[in-house]
Amino acid sequence: MVLITIAFPRIHLLCLQDFFSTFPLSNIKVVGNQWNWQRESEFSVDHLLDVDQLENVASYENPVLLKINTPTRVVVGSTDVLHSLGLPALGVKLDATPGRLNATVTESYLIGVIPGSCYELCGRGHRVIPIQLVVS
Question: What is the pTM of this model?
Answer without folding.
Answer: 0.69
